[in-house]
Design brief:
Largest sheet: 6 strands, mixed
Radius of gyration: 33 Å
Oligomer: single chain
Distance between the termini: 60 Å
Strand order of the largest sheet: 1-10-3-4-2-7
Structural class: alpha/beta
Number of domains: 4
Number of helices: 26
């Protein structure tokens, strides 16, 4: 079996040779109506140079006998033919018979010695074939008889006529040859990915495979084919960079690019919208724009802080790149989103960065606002998705609606503030947050990154710049090697608790230096508190200092157990919601 895909224009498809397209008997009947026809019309007229119309799968095994079976695509091919019939009728109406004859050549075969029509190029679905072959004739007068010979065709007319009448009405506004010619150029210039199959693969299996894979496996190839055909200088190298930046997430990257530029897009419409964007910007500008997005997308996914700073510097975002703390804070929020496995904010982060770049590149006040917006994304998703375990896409529509608003750079401040307000309104309540936060624990290595992140943010709350001590490093599996997580109630004695798992609870955890940690081994809570009171133990670790201040007396008088762990977890939850992750 051989499967051969190729990019073909509608004109090339209709000029495929002397073979006739046939809709096999196993295919469903022609069932596109006015809605689908209207969509096709709008797609065609929306582009100056033609537009992508989907995949066409053809079984060419019997091509040498003059037959090509349509495995997938009969609805589109039939509807395109009906549009051509309407264009031919319009050409005749304005007495442009030469054009009408040329259109007929796309629709029918003719005897080379007499010029007489010998048959239709498309053997349409049996559900409409009789009436289709009647109206495709070059001498058709526009009538729809309910009976052809002895056969009643009213049901066939009910399927064909509404689509044809919609096209006839649309082309009735075309008054001159040039008008029809312009429409035909758009239609003939539109293209499909033609997939030829030559072999004994079961056609039903092939149909299922084509639909299962569909756009998701082909969109990047379709875009590549479209861009390469535009003969853009350096496209091979640029395309390789785009693919490398997307890594294994090409479809997501392409979708997020569209969201950043245009807003919401359905998966099935991704390529169609990409081609429109290319047409609007012109292909060479589109490629540069997509390349820039892919570079930033790669940084969001797995870039280093120096990569982010270099991007800001290269793109004129000097208010950020020259402020070490702003750049670090933005990167920290991006790293947190990676930890959360949340990618929905990526398009709007890019849109906001580009809006800042366009109008406020060296403005420190707006750089601070951008930093606040990205920090708000981090805080919102921590509260709603990580702690409260809400669905990750609850805010996605808002992001999609807002992303293209940032393309109007003059509204940058307004858009930032409005979006922050929306996120504030959608933030989960404390009543929902508190019990979930109190369940945080560290029992396996898989828990370490999140616990390190939580304690890092608590430790560095209300500290700025060089005052901060970074405890969380996602690329180091959680935290710095010079620190460790300490179970204040000894892990070795967890069996003495009513519930041994309480020892892993957030209320029992601190991050301390490895040096201090080595001193606490096998010590009781009372002995540990005395060691921690040494200033060296809590240097640059405010959360340890706060723990000592809040619980030293309690530990000395009442000890440290399950009740105390729960008490501290409650205090941490309150501070986390109302201070640390407040926005």
């Amino acid at each position: 079996m051989a499967i051969t895909p190729s990019r073909q224009t509608v004109e090339q498809l209709l000029n495929i040779g002397n073979a006739r397209f046939l809709v096999p008997s196993y295919q469903r009947g022609f069932d596109w109506g006015k809605d689908e026809a209207d969509d096709l019309w709008n797609d065609v007229i929306s582009s100056d140079q033609g537009i992508y119309l989907g995949n066409i799968v053809l079984d060419v095994e019997n091509m040498n006998r003059g037959e090509i079976s349509i495995v997938d695509g009969q609805q589109r091919i039939t509807t395109i033919c009906l549009l051509l019939i309407a264009c031919r009728a319009r050409a005749i109406a304005i007495k442009e018979n030469k054009l009408a004859n040329k259109i007929t050549e796309k629709l029918t075969f003719s005897d080379s010695t007499t010029g007489e029509m010998t048959g239709a190029r498309l053997g349409a679905s049996m559900a409409v074939r009789d009436i289709f072959e009647y109206i495709i004739r070059d001498d058709w007068k526009g009538d729809f008889p309910v009976k052809l010979g002895k056969k009643f065709v009213k049901r066939q007319i009910n399927k064909i006529k509404p689509v044809y009448e919609l096209f006839r009405e649309r082309v009735s506004s075309l008054k001159k040859l040039e008008d029809i010619s312009t429409l035909l150029k758009k239609l003939y210039g539109s293209f499909v990915i033609k997939i030829d199959v030559d072999g004994d693969l079961d056609v039903f299996d092939l149909f299922e495979r084509a639909n299962a894979r569909g756009l998701e496996l082909n969109a990047a190839d379709l875009l590549k084919a479209d861009l390469f055909s535009a003969e853009i200088a350096g496209i091979e190298e640029t395309w390789d960079e785009i693919v490398e930046n997307a890594d294994t997430t090409m479809m997501r990257m392409l979708k997020y690019y569209l969201v950043a530029r245009k807003g919401a897009v359905q998966k099935k419409d991704i390529f169609k919208n990409l081609q429109r964007q290319s047409s609007e910007l012109k292909p060479d500008i589109f490629v540069k724009d997509l390349s820039d997005f892919s570079a930033f997308y790669a940084i969001l996914r797995e870039g280093r802080e120096e990569d982010l700073r270099s991007y800001f510097e290269a793109n004129g975002c000097l208010g950020i790149s020259r402020n070490q703390h702003y750049c670090h804070d933005i990167y920290s929020s991006i790293e947190a989103l990676r930890l959360f496995r949340v990618t929905q904010p990526y398009p709007i982060i890019y849109s906001a960065v580009k809006a800042y770049q366009e109008k406020y590149g060296d403005n420190a006040e707006m750089a601070k606002l951008l930093r606040s917006l990205i920090e708000t994304f981090e805080k919102y998703h921590f509260v709603n998705n990580v702690i409260c375990e809400r669905v990750g896409n609850e805010i996605e529509k808002t992001y999609m609606d807002f992303a293209p608003k940032f393309n109007n750079a003059k509204d940058f401040k307004k858009n930032c503030n409005e979006l922050i307000k929306i996120l504030q309104d959608k933030k989960a309540s404390y009543e929902e947050f508190e019990p979930n936060f109190k369940e945080l624990s560290y029992s396996t290595s898989a828990d370490l990154p999140l616990i390190s992140y939580v304690i890092d943010r608590i430790n560095n709350f209300d500290r700025v710049g060089g005052q901060k001590t970074q405890l969380f490093f996602l690329d180091r599996k959680g935290f710095r090697r010079s620190f460790n997580v300490e179970h204040f109630y000894p892990d070795s004695k967890r069996g003495e608790l009513p519930d041994p798992d309480v020892a892993d609870n957030i209320g029992n955890l601190l991050i301390i230096s490895l040096h201090t940690n080595s001193k606490l081994q096998a010590k009781t809570p009372l002995e540990k508190i005395e060691i921690l009171k040494n200033k060296e133990s809590f240097a640059n670790l405010p959360h340890v200092k706060t723990f000592i201040e809040e619980f030293e007396n309690h530990i000395k008088t009442k000890g440290w157990g399950a009740d105390e762990i729960a008490m501290r977890a409650g205090k941490l939850a309150h501070s986390a919601y109302h201070k640390v992750w407040h926005f």
